[in-house]
Write a structure and sequence with these properties.
mainly alpha; 12 helices; four-stranded antiparallel β-sheet; single chain
Length: 329
């Protein structure tokens, strides 16, 4: 089971528990649940608070609801373990993701479609930036709207009601003149909307000290690897890759990150994920192409396919932030 399949499995478990009478018939089965990576020191790989969402209509404590769901989910193929922690959190252990599963065309196509649908080019004239709003509020609100569109075909401005956005300390014109639109947008989206963003010299650095640079550079490197491989006479072909666990996990987590970022109206979650993915790709890049007199092999083609998939996800994520993904830096 891929992490992206977990939300559907949880919804299915709630639906079946209601149908079989294990949960009260008054329970409203959620259309979507949020499953996220557990925090450092937490239990398992992923967790969901769905029991709290269901408990009130079920007429029992969240912990009891979670126990019902845990018994069902433990029988799902592809889930190694399910545990209930605290007052009712469901925690999951999944097998390590494999490269063929993560970069199968169905998964990558879904990522591309959802990112393209939610990306900057999808904004209609009716969604044009409201000039009565400050720069930070326009940037954050438009990004949240794009994220919402990755989860549904339509998202209205009403979905942003109650979104509190702290303004920048500097004047909008000064920020844009000094840092440029894209670097400024990155800084404004990198912290929670309620917090005031800070700007610094690192935004303008063309080096590893700048997260903004690293993410865009990692995308450019993925495209360069594909071009260089073509010059060597081979292309990407999905296969087993056993030396990139961090990159595989980051790719597998991408759909869950989009759902959580949209649910919480929190673009900073996507920003953090793109940095994690970019760093994993930059560490992995040196193992993609043949070295010296080495001939291209199936392993090289599989690693190239993984790098290409990472570049695709980085490009889509940057588009959701309203930021360009250059092919050369």
């Amino acid at each position: 089971m891929n992490p992206a399949d977990l939300p559907r499995a949880v919804v299915r478990a709630v639906r079946c528990a209601v149908a079989d009478g294990e949960l009260a018939a008054t329970v409203v089965v959620p259309e979507r649940v949020v499953v996220e990576r557990t925090r450092p020191g937490g239990v398992g790989d992923y967790a969901t608070p769905v029991a709290f969402q269901v408990a009130k209509r079920a007429g029992c404590a969240p912990h009891a609801v979670a126990q019902v769901l845990a018994r069902r989910l433990a029988q799902e193929p592809g889930i190694d373990d399910v545990e209930v922690t605290g007052p009712g959190f469901l925690c999951f252990v999944l097998p390590a993701p494999t490269a063929p599963d993560v970069i199968s065309r169905g998964i990558i196509d879904d990522i591309v479609i959802r990112d393209a649908r939610g990306g900057a080019a999808f904004l209609s004239p009716a969604d044009a930036a409201d000039t009565s709003l400050g720069l930070r509020e326009r940037v954050v609100r438009d990004c949240v709207l794009r994220l919402l569109r990755t989860q549904s075909d339509r998202a209205a401005r009403g979905d942003l009601d109650g979104l509190a956005v702290a303004a920048v300390a500097e004047r909008d014109g000064d920020v844009l003149a000094r840092y440029g639109r894209e670097a400024a947008s990155w800084a404004m989206l990198a912290v929670p909307a309620r917090e005031t963003p800070t700007f610094g010299a690192a935004l303008l650095l063309q080096g590893e000290a700048s997260e903004f640079f690293r993410v865009r550079y990692a995308h450019a490197r993925a495209r360069t690897l594909v071009r260089n491989a073509g010059q060597l006479g081979f292309g990407p072909d999905a296969g087993d890759v056993d030396d990139a666990p961090e990159l595989l996990r980051a790719l597998a987590d991408h759909p869950l990150v989009l759902e959580a970022a949209a649910h919480h109206r929190a673009p900073e979650r996507l920003v953090r994920h793109l940095v994690e993915l970019a760093d994993a790709l930059l560490d992995f890049q040196y193992r993609v192409l043949p070295k010296g007199d080495e001939k291209p092999s199936a392993a090289h083609r599989a690693r190239l396919a993984l790098a290409e998939a990472a570049g695709t996800v980085l490009a889509g994520g940057l588009a959701l932030l309203g930021i360009d993904a250059p092919t050369r830096l």
